[in-house]
Amino acid sequence: MKPLSGNVTDSIGRHTVGGASSQRLLDKVFLGLSRRDYLSQFLANPVNWALSLILAIGIPLLCQRYLFGLQAISHGSQDYPWGVLLGFGLFGMVPLSASGFLLSTTVEIFQRDDFRPIERLALLNGLLGYFFAVVFLLVDLGMPWRLTYPMVVSFGPAAVLFLVAWHVATYLSVQIAEMVPAVSEWADWPGLKRFVKKLTLGLTIAGIILSTLHQGALGALFCYAPAKIHPLWIAPEFQWLHFFVSSIFAGLCMVIVVSWLVRKTMAWRCDHRFLDTLDEITLGLAKGAAMAMITYLVIKIVAIAHDQEWLLLISGWGLYYLLELGLGTLVPLIIFAYGVRHRRVTMVRWGALLAVAGIVWNRLNTVLICYNYRLHQEIPYWKELWVVLTVLSFYFIVYRFFLYRIPVLFEWRD
Amino acid sequence: MKEETRRGTTFTRRSLLKGMVAAVATAISMRPSRDSSAHDFHGYDSNRGVLVDLTRCIGCRSCEVACSQEHGLAPPDGMLENYQPLEPQYRETRRPDHQAFTVVNQYQSPLYDHPLFKKTQCNHCLEPACLTACFVNAYTKTPEGAVIYNESVCVGCRTCMVACPFSIPAFRYDSAFDAQIMKCNFCFDTRLSKGRPPACVEACPMEALTFGYRDELLKIARKRLRDLPGRYHREIYGEFEAGGTSWLYLSPVPFEEAGFDTRVPRQPILHFVKDFLAVVPMVLTIWPGLFAGIYLLAKSNKTADNTTSKEDKSDETIER
């Protein structure tokens, strides 16, 4: 993004004087560039070409899905009702988006001001992650137009999914409220910001409650299939705890990875406050993640001991389980321990990337690979994978749109 | 004094909030107490069922044909004439799906000199997993014993398919506008609600299927086990599986030999989810106080820190 950095006018980081307010807003949307300059920087970026290619194939696939049913883009398996769309899109995206509640708790509840520079990035990461998990759900649900039925039409309050639906919906509203200050600075609505600021503590605590419960509930959903999932991946008494604790380091590692990417690709948009503290913050986040990881490893072992599954560990599935836990959690944990001790920030960032992949791997194992392990193995249809890629591209585009504009990586100067 | 008043109002507001939280918590904790009768629910007395005797089934698949006619589904494919053994593609691997509510599969066991035929359909559990997993209450357990589905509220999340320990509910993936769950409904609308046996039972030429009250069927099954001890494996599949099912099976060989899933837990599936459901009101009540407390501690700590660090600095300057 080097060419852009020179062109962007300084006016988009503050409230400019003069001009109609709608004109100023448009100016901010186009980053203070003329339409022609904006288009030329857009075309000069190879990432945009790759995204266009993905969407060029993906959008027709989405149309196919909404016209001819899920069968058109997936195998429509009766044995694997939840495919990679939910396995990655819902069960993978939600733990990676735990960042919002983690960092708002750290800053607003634990009063750790040293993490404040990254709080808004974590909040945005959380909001968009949840929003796009819902988008994935809208692609996968048989009747997406009935998404609100559990809230308004027909209630099944004893079902775990009822809890997930309500909590994700409520938490999405909480996260939108938490992002209001940043957006209102950008759009110049100071009154709204002042109002929401007063709610911060309440919103944060609501966020912790809702996150604990729905991150756990996503795990508890699998307690409905105690005999279908390989016993190593299901422990009915502990499943919610496994999912909740792993979401803690998943969210923290995701922030490490995103902030790394941001510093590499859009340093022009970051201010000194963000850039100068990022290394220190990364080490701090890694320290927190390492504590969640060791907790996770211990409760995973507790579950094996509780269910008397030691012998299963020396089977083929057992080795696969140890590989997942080793590569996805133990290796990142060792990297974090070493990296934090010797202040090796780049090393820590690679470890975080590995942990993020490890969490997605764990969720895919639970939903897809070790689910119905006694039956055939479901290998997703390429169209389903492409649709996942398409929704992820929308996620990327929206994420970048907000990072470029609203004060997430920089402080607004009034 | 002014400070005092302000603190006072904060307290009132907080106690109000606490009151609200407590009210929510009470409302939530009331729910299990209302359902507490469900702890010892053993099914309706009027629960009908069907006893399937594998030693009598010859694999003619008449039940499949009758079922597809009853429900207006496509006729089952594969050869059905002359009561011949199934072609290989119809052995073992088929399951009920959106085009067939019941299937008869063939199994070969070394413990038995004939091929074995097992009819699969919804077992109409006494405490159905699909029902307990459904977040829009699309499933109903009728007093007659049928587990029926209401497609007009279904969102298509397919959790029931994950939850069903017998993998019965199937989804119509091939339609964007008419997608729904498809499964055996015990012919509830057309027959069971009028006290008549389902179409498959009526079509069976071998009396391999016996329709009746579940209690009576259990007695009949036990009588057969007692009268012909050499003929049967000494268990009734469905008596305890997943908390008990309306459809019961007798087999000449251990059930896993005839394609039954014997790892289905004996408790109702809901049993495995209750632990988590109990955590919910705990988190809702404990977290607000806990984290508000941590906030207050952290806040007072920080203020104290700031004062001490200032004092330290001033000490340093003095020493210099």
What distinguishing features does this structure have?
heterodimer; A: 414 residues; mainly alpha; Formate dehydrogenase/DMSO reductase fold; 0% strand; B: 320 residues; alpha+beta; Alpha-Beta Plaits; 3-stranded mixed β-sheet; 9 strands; 38% helix; elongated; disordered N terminus; disordered C terminus
Largest sheet of chain B: 3 strands, mixed
Number of domains of chain A: 1
CATH class of chain B: Alpha Beta
Oligomerization status of the protein chains: heterodimer
CATH topology of chain A: Formate dehydrogenase/DMSO reductase fold
Order of helices and strands of chain A: HHHHHHHHHHHHHHHH
Whole-angstrom Rg of chain A: 22 Å
Quickly give the structural class of chain A: mainly alpha
CATH architecture annotation name of chain A: Up-down Bundle
Q: Point out poorly predicted stretches of chain B.
A: 1-11, 32-36, 313-320
- Summarize the helix and strand pattern of chain B as letters: HEHEEHEEHEEHEHEH
Radius of gyration of chain B: 30 Å
Number of helices of chain A: 16
Number of strands of chain A: 0
Structural domain tally of chain B:
1
Q: Share of helix among residues of chain B?
A: 25-40%
Q: Which geometry of chain B do the CA atoms define? A: elongated
Summed over residues and divided by their number, the pLDDT of chain A gives a mean of 90
Largest interface: A-B, 62 and 59 residues
- N-to-C span of chain A: 26 Å
Describe the protein in words.
The complex is a heterodimer of chains A (414) and B (320). With 414 residues, chain A is mainly alpha-helical. Chain A has one domain (45-393): Formate dehydrogenase/DMSO reductase fold (Up-down Bundle). Helices cover 71% and strands 0% of the residues of chain A. Chain A has helices spanning 2-7, 21-29, 35-44, 46-68, 84-89, 93-96, 99-109, 116-140, 149-152, 160-187, 190-220, 239-265, 272-306, 316-341, 345-369, 382-405. Chain B has 320 residues and is of the alpha+beta class. Chain B has one domain: 2-Layer Sandwich (Alpha-Beta Plaits), CATH 3.30.70.20. Chain B is 38% helix and 11% strand. Chain B has helices spanning 2-34, 62-70, 129-133, 159-163, 199-203, 214-227, 271-319, and strands spanning 48-53, 103-107, 116-120, 139-141, 147-149, 170-171, 181-182, 209-213, 247-250. In chain B, strands 8-1-9 form a three-stranded mixed β-sheet. Chain B has a two-stranded antiparallel sheet with strand order 2-3. In chain B, a hairpin with an 8-residue loop joins β2 (103-107) and β3. Chain B is elongated, with a radius of gyration of 30 Å. Chain B starts with a helix and ends with a helix. In chain B, 38% of the residues are buried. The chains are: A mainly alpha (414), B alpha+beta (320).
